[in-house]
Design brief:
Strand content: 25-35%
Strand order of the largest sheet: 6-7-8-3-9-10
Helix content: 25-40%
Bound molecules: adenosine-5'-triphosphate
Number of strands: 12
Protein name: Iron ABC transporter ATP-binding protein
Oligomer: single chain
GO molecular function, one term: ATP hydrolysis activity
Shape: globular
Number of helices: 9
Domain ABC transporter: 9-248
CATH architecture: 3-Layer(aba) Sandwich
CATH superfamily: P-loop containing nucleotide triphosphate hydrolases
Order of helices and strands: EEEHEEHEHHHEHEHEEHHEE
Distance between the termini: 40 Å
CATH topology: Rossmann fold
CATH class: Alpha Beta
Keywords: ATP-binding, Nucleotide-binding, Translocase, Transport
Structural class: alpha/beta
Largest sheet: 6 strands, mixed
InterPro entries: AAA+_ATPase, ABC_transporter-like_ATP-bd, ABC_transporter-like_CS, P-loop_NTPase
């Protein structure tokens, strides 16, 4: 790899700790803008640790993370969090708040209420960004409902809207389809794809390999190292999946889409 600045999120020979153990070792990967990248791998492979390192929440034990060609460590925190949004596995959201209010949190609204200092006075641009995020995630229809009145799938779309309201360049998602039925899970992927078509760079940790097959590119982690990296057809091979998961699978093509089927 050259040292030329590349747009996107990038790790170079990254090692990172989770607790006291080294959860990532020598990970070199590139997550470009306008691309849907999925990080896959068995439990404990280091996927969440990678997301935390990309967010700057875990400092590298070796190597580095770059954001749009600049080392992450050189970015100011506020600047970095405007560029990269994060949707955690479990979002600590205020249950009694209205949907619009929750999405507005993505732009720093209501900071005082949550014990934070507002970054800027609320503007029409903030209001417009909230409306756009609600509309793009099909949540405008229930903007006046409380969060506690929504189904799991609807809540996940509200969480996505909250992240999109910040108008980030990159969005990191940790198992965004966890606990969702097939319809809602596909819905999340469809919304992600729309945002990617608009230029957003998405990095999603996914456990469902058939959902991951819908990404543009995959990074397969195993025991903290990169086992495979590239388009789904080159990563989701029976050999790679046996090496990572210890499960024999076959891959099929259905209408141009790759499908992974366990043999037992
Ligand atoms: N707080 C911690 N203290 C010690 N070890 C940790 C801690 N968090 C994670 N680990 C270890 O680091 C390794 C990577 O964990 P990580 O959560 O990144 O994996 P993952 O691929 O996201 O797993 P999962 O799919 O189960 O969520 C695992 O071996 C895990 O046990």
């Amino acid at each position: 790899m050259t040292d030329a600045p590349a747009p996107g999120l990038e790790t170079r020979d990254l090692s990172a700790r989770a607790g006291t153990s080294l959860a990532l070792r020598g990970v070199t990967a590139h997550f470009p803008p306008a691309t849907f990248s999925a990080v896959i791998g068995p439990n404990g492979a280091g996927k969440s640790t990678l997301l935390r390192a990309l967010l700057g929440l875990t400092a590298p034990a070796g190597g580095e993370v770059r954001l749009d060609g600049r080392p992450l460590a050189g970015w100011r925190r506020a600047e970095r969090s405007r560029a990269v949004a994060y949707l955690a596995q479990t979002e600590p959201l205020p249950e009694n708040a209205g949907v619009r209010e929750v999405v507005a949190l993505g732009r720093g609204a209501g900071a005082w209420r949550w014990g934070l200092i507002p970054t800027h006075p609320w503007t029409e641009a903030d209001e417009a960004a909230v409306t756009t995020a609600l509309s793009r995630t099909d949540t405008l229809q229930f903007e006046h409902r409380r969060l506690s009145e929504l189904s799991g799938g609807e809540r996940q779309r509200v969480s996505l809207a909250r992240a999109l309201a910040a108008e980030p360049r990159y969005l990191l998602l940790d198992e965004p389809t966890n606990h969702l039925d097939l319809g809602y899970a596909l819905d999340v992927i469809r919304h992600v794809r729309c945002e990617v078509a608009g230029g957003l760079g998405v990095v999603a940790v996914l456990h469902d390999l058939n959902l991951a097959a819908r990404a543009d590119r995959l990074l397969l982690l195993h025991q903290g190292e990169v086992l495979a990296d590239g388009p789904p057809e080159t990563v989701l091979t029976p050999e790679h999946l046996y090496a990572a998961y210890g499960v024999r699978v076959k891959t099929l093509h259905d209408g141009g889409r790759l499908v992974v089927v366990p043999e037992h």
